[in-house]
């Protein structure tokens, strides 16, 4: 049956998709919240939710809102699963979630991502298979995979283009490689953007629409959220805060410039300052631990890093005026030891009105932010047609598998 634009059946399908999309993005909503989000009347929402429930697309459970009884609507646990894969510089983490924003399984293992991209994808494929089998769900239930990599993705080609950041991965198209192996759509982004998504949906960014997620680890990057959406820029390189110049006569950065923020804050540049006195095996995690225990050298280094990061955050405030900055990566575990100097620099260098409106806090997801962001990426990018197959009939709902971002 061919739908005529503007027909009753076409309008009905559009309303079904609006409701499903609202629930999919939020995880769960009351019927009143669905009405506010979609602009549909309460009666229309009630009828659509009843239809979706009868078709097995959504689940409805009793809840309360504002002290009154309400009904919470979420996508059915049987509607499908999504996979998150996060490649860090030293780890591989995989998570499996359902469409109601529940994490069903998760596992991490050590990995030197700089060594071999083929080894990385081999291990990711094995780990995905093991977790899917663990939760007792068939592979046919996988709707999509979110993939995070620690480097910029070229928007047009989908390849990793920076040989300085991941030399062994240069020219590789990680989306196509993982999609070929798993046979499902793959959505790819850099780790800072996924950290921002993870904190926005599950963590310290909930409830705000404009934020910056700053990840300080082996490098320094930022994920920018503007009006509730990740901002990537036309070339996909928005958020490279680590390459803001702080000192034109400073150390040479891996990008080729001098005195980038990264050369004053990233682990690869900071650790040599302390390894002479604390040993060559020192890690950033250990520096944070020692600083919290009172080690004067480690506390000084973390304070200095905080001041430098704060200078970069101040520039972001002046340009984008976010309402919240969330600090992630290994440095975030230092808590107020690093947050206080960040706030001090922001107060000194940012426009006063922007600084007053800004809250700076650590992420609440820790090392899980990026993999949960990968799940959120799939949930935000996937289409709704597949979820409505049971409602509309397969011939009227083309599969989302025909489109891989």
Series of H and E elements: HEHHEEEEEHEHEHEEEHHHHHEHHEHH
Report helical residue fraction: 40-55%
- Overall pLDDT metric: 87
Distance between the termini: 28 Å
Beta-strand content estimate: 15-25%
Mind explaining what this structure looks like?
The chain is α/β, with parallel strands linked by helices and 405 residues long. The chain is built from 15 helices and 13 strands. The strands form three sheets. Strands 6-5-4-7-8 form a five-stranded mixed beta sheet, sandwiched between helices. Strands 11-10-9-12-13 form a five-stranded mixed beta sheet, with helices on both faces. It is globular, with a radius of gyration of 23 Å. The two termini are 28 Å apart.
Give the helix/strand layout.
Layout: H1 8-26, E1 28-30, H2 31-38, H3 42-54, E2 58-65, E3 68-75, E4 81-87, E5 91-98, E6 103-110, H4 117-134, E7 142-149, H5 174-182, E8 186-190, H6 191-202, E9 211-216, E10 220-226, E11 229-231, H7 262-265, H8 267-270, H9 272-278, H10 284-292, H11 296-320, E12 324-328, H12 336-349, H13 352-357, E13 359-362, H14 369-381, H15 389-392
Parallel strand pairs: 4-7, 7-8, 9-12, 12-13
Antiparallel strand pairs: 1-3, 2-3, 4-5, 5-6, 9-10, 10-11
Helix pairs in contact: 2-3, 6-14, 10-11, 11-12
What's this, in brief?
The protein is α/β, with parallel strands linked by helices. 41% of the residues lie in helices and 20% in strands.
């Amino acid at each position: 049956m061919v739908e005529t634009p503007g027909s009753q059946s076409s309008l009905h399908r559009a309303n079904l998709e609006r409701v499903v999309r609202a629930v999919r993005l939020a995880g769960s909503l009351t019927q009143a919240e669905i009405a506010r989000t979609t602009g549909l009347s309460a009666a229309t929402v009630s009828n659509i939710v009843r239809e979706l429930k009868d078709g097995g697309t959504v689940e409805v459970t009793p809840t309360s809102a504002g002290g009154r009884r309400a009904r919470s609507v979420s996508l059915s646990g049987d509607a499908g699963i999504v996979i998150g894969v996060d490649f860090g510089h030293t780890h591989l983490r995989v998570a499996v979630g359902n469409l109601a924003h529940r994490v069903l399984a998760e596992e991490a293992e050590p990995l030197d991502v700089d060594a071999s991209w083929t080894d990385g994808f081999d291990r990711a494929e094995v780990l995905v298979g093991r977790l899917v089998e663990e939760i007792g769900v068939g592979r046919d239930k996988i709707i999509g995979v979110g993939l995070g990599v620690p480097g910029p993705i070229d928007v047009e080609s989908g390849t990793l283009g920076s040989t300085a950041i991941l030399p062994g991965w240069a020219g590789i198209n990680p989306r196509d490689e993982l999609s070929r192996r798993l046979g499902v759509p793959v959505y790819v982004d850099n780790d800072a953007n996924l950290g921002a998504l993870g904190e926005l949906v599950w963590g310290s960014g909930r409830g705000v629409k404009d934020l910056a997620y700053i990840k300080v680890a082996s490098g320094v990057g930022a994920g920018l959220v503007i009006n509730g959406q990740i901002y990537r820029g036309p070339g996909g390189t928005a958020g490279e805060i680590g390459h803001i110049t702080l000192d034109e006569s400073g150390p040479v950065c891996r990008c080729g410039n001098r005195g980038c923020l990264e050369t004053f804050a990233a682990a690869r540049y900071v650790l040599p300052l302390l390894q002479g006195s604390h040993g060559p095996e020192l890690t950033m995690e250990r520096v944070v631990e020692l600083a919290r225990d009172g080690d004067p050298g480690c506390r000084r280094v973390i304070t200095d890093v905080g001041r430098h990061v704060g200078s970069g955050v101040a520039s972001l405030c002046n340009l984008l005026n976010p309402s919240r900055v969330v600090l992630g990566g290994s440095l975030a575990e230092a808590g107020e030891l690093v947050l206080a100097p960040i706030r001090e620099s922001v107060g000194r260098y940012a426009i006063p009105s922007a600084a007053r409106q800004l809250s700076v806090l650590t992420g609440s997801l820790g090392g899980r932010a990026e993999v949960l962001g990968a799940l959120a990426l799939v949930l935000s990018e996937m289409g709704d047609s597949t979820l409505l197959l049971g409602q509309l009939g397969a011939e009227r709902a083309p599969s989302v598998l025909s489109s891989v971002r």
